[in-house]
Design brief:
Blueprint lengths: L2 E2 L32 H20 L1 H10 L48 H21 L5 H13 L13 E3 L4 E11 L3 E10 L6 E3 L4 E9 L11 H4 L2 E8 L5 E8 L6 E4 L5 E3 L4 E6 L2 E8 L4 E3 L6 E2 L5 E5 L10
Antiparallel strand pairs: 1-10, 2-15, 3-4, 3-14, 4-12, 5-11, 6-7, 6-10, 7-8, 8-12, 9-11, 13-15
Helix pairs in contact: 3-4
């Protein structure tokens, strides 16, 4: 689990900083800044659940209040347990230790935990419709049942074997590698950008490519163009995280989540000062999308992945920084 830290701090890069721009985008008020119908439904259910627990289970509410840690901060309500913090875990508010969280078991399910509500609402609705259709004429159950299978398949979260080795860059997303280009990035400098297209059949969880500390989280609303169109990377809704990696002497990498024509909900629970391990999950994009990875370009970099290759988040090696070649800091 990612945790904020004060003692583990990779050397800072020489990138320019602007004090007027906060590292944590103030527009990011939840892990799903674009909102959504299912999110609104789940938040409404949370309000009803808290009212029920306070009225009929005050002992449970009291125990959970005694065990919670942190401070309320800017949170607009008083949470009862960890379920209430699902959408606000990136706000630096209350949290519960694993030993005090009665809902930690949900992390062990073979599905991405932040997609469980969609799985229940969308998948449950499709399954219910298929049963009703079967009562009229059994072949009618097939289309909604296939939709149910697709929803279940979409939110799956398979285990991944993460490669080790200092300087090993793993893929941040499942999908097809459609772009490898050299760019001059205003923050990173000379860089390589990898573009990954995710179809609705891919796992949509995002993972960190190199171990590091989050130094910036940026969100920008936008359009919902087809993720295969080149202009989608510029015009669609997107969220960037930048990390300083100890593997690169504190230099910065960027992972960008981009919505698509059908994938309209970016989820990211990373916040500034969180430390992530290589291959650790930090978010997802719901229902088809694009992910980009930008890393520093220098003589130590060896690109392994090839355009057109099918890649897997956290396990496919995209590139390696050779330890026997000196890594120069940004000028």
């Amino acid at each position: 689990m990612s945790t904020p830290t004060e003692s583990i701090m990779p050397p800072r890069s020489n990138r320019p900083r602007t004090d007027a721009v906060p590292a944590m985008d103030p527009a990011v008020k939840s892990i799903q800044p674009g909102g959504g119908v299912v999110m609104a439904m789940e938040l409404a259910w949370g309000r009803a659940r808290r009212a029920y627990l306070r009225k009929f289970r005050p002992g449970y509410v009291s125990r959970m209040a005694d065990r919670r840690q942190g401070e309320r901060g800017d949170l607009t309500f008083d949470p009862v347990d960890s379920r209430d913090m699902k959408y606000y875990r990136n706000q630096g508010s209350y949290w519960w230790a694993d030993a005090d969280d009665p809902f930690l078991w949900r992390d062990a399910l073979p599905f991405v935990r932040v997609g469980l509500a969609e799985l229940l609402v969308l998948g449950g609705a499709a399954l219910l419709i298929s049963v009703v259709m079967a009562l009229f004429w059994w072949p009618l159950f097939l289309p909604p049942f296939m939709l149910f299978i697709l929803v279940v398949w979409f939110f799956r979260s398979p285990r991944r074997a993460v490669p080790s080795g200092t300087g090993t860059v793993v893929s941040p997303a499942d999908g097809k590698l459609v772009e490898i280009v050299e760019i001059d990035d205003p923050v990173i400098g000379p860089a390589i950008r990898f573009g990954i297209f995710l179809s609705i059949f891919n796992v949509h969880a995002n993972r960190v490519s190199l171990p590091g500390r989050v130094v910036s989280v940026r969100y920008r609303p936008g359009k919902f163009l087809n993720a295969l169109r080149p202009e989608s990377a510029r015009e669609n809704e997107k969220l960037d995280i930048e990390l300083e990696s100890g593997d690169l002497d504190g230099r910065v990498i960027r992972i960008r989540q981009i919505t698509g024509q059908f994938a309209r909900r970016i989820v990211c629970w990373a916040r500034v000062d969180d430390v992530f391990a290589r291959g650790e999950m930090y978010g997802m994009i719901k229902l088809g999308s694009r992910t980009e990875l930008v890393i520093p370009r220098d003589d130590a970099l060896s690109i392994v992945a090839k355009i057109g290759e099918k890649i897997f988040a956290g396990s496919t090696v995209m590139a390696r920084y050779q330890s026997d070649v000196s890594i120069e800091s940004d000028a």
